[in-house]
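Structure ticket #2291
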Amino acid sequence: MHTGQHGLYCNTKMISQTLFLDTIFKVIDALSIQIKKEDNKRVRMICFKDYFETDNIHQNQHLFTKNKLYKLQVQPNMVLDIIPSWSSSKDYVLALSKKYRSRYKSALKKATNVIKKELDLNEINTASEAIYMLYKNVSDNAKVNSFVLDKRHFFYLKKELDQDFRLFGYYLNDQLIGFYTLILNNNHLETYFLGYNPDFQSKYQLYLNMLYDMLDFAITNGFKKVVYARTAMEIKSSVGAKPNAMSIYIKHTDNFILNPTLKYIVNTLNPTSKWEERHPFK
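Resolution: structure written out below.
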C-alpha cells in the first residue's frame, strides 16, 4: 500500500533476478488458479509497483513483456537527500534561501501552542478511534483512493514493527488534532500515513509542520534520505524534496484487448498533477 518497491526482495547472491522473476510469474499463475478454485474469485489485475528508472529490474523488461505486462509511468516519489554535514535542523535552515527560511520560521511559530509527542503502543491503542478519524479526514478528500485502511491498522503495525514504526501526535488543549507516522527502513526514513483535523490545518500549518518534523527526525537520527512518497508534490518540493520518476508493470487478466489502453485508463484514474517544483536552497 506504500509508495515504493516494498513487495519483492531478491538476494542476488543466491538466485539471479531473472530466475527470481520467472518464478514469481509461475507463482502468480498458480495462485490465480488456487483463488479461483477455493474462493471462486478471479484475479483481474496484476501489478508490480513501484520502480525507480534506475532500478535494475528494468533489465528484465522482456520477462514482463513475455507475460503481457505493460510498463506505465506513475506519479513521482518525492525524496529529500540529507546533506552529510547537517547535524541538526539548524544546519538545514542555514542552507535555505531567505524566502524559505522565513517560511520555516513562520510555520513553527504558528504551531507554538501545539504539543507534539510520540505515542507508544498503549497510547496508540487508546487513541485508535481519534487517529482513524483524522486519517479518514485526509483519505476521504484524496483525489484517488484505491483502498481504506483497517481501523486498527496503526496499532497492529506498531505492535509488529515496534521501534521501526513511529507515530507522533499533535495536541491542542489535550485534543488530538493531527498525527503522522514514519517507518524506519535502514538508512531511509519512509514517511507513512498521516491525518489532521481540517478545522486546525490552516491556522497552525499542521501539514507543513509535519514535513519539517519528519525531516528533523531524519537529521537527528542519522538517516540519509527522507522518502516523502507521492501526492502534494509542490509543498514537498518546497522543503527540499526532489521528484524521482517511477514506473509500474500492469496487466488486465480478463480482457487482453484492454491492456494496450491501460496507460490511458491509469492516467484517467490517477491524472498527472500540474505543479511547480520549488527550489528552497541557496
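Closing remark: The radius of gyration is 21 Å.
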